[in-house]
Amino acid sequence: MDEHGLARILGWVSIGVGLSAIAAPVPLLRAFGMGDRPKLAHFLGVRDLVLGVGILRGQNAGAWVRARGIADALDGVLIIGGAATRAFRRDRAPIGLAAAAGFSALSFWLAQRLDR
Known about the structure:
The protein is an all-alpha fold. The chain has helices spanning 3-23, 25-31, 38-57, 61-84, 93-114.
């Protein structure tokens, strides 16, 4: 699969996660240890929808994929901060942090490939 195909998959995953965060905010955030914060989930869901659509439009995909990586890195910071202050469950934080770090790394790698 080439970089553009992988970017399309990332775009659809972003849309899927965004829709999940809007439709079922509490279960999604609980899975990542972020508790019962539906407004936070809705915000993150809308953000993911915007990023997913931007990636799928195909215009300047590298920039949109890089924005996806930045958003995922910020999710990791949010999770670490929430766990450190005990606002989020510490036992679930590693799951959310692993997902955020993995998708962020993938996004930055893919953005670099798309920019070539």
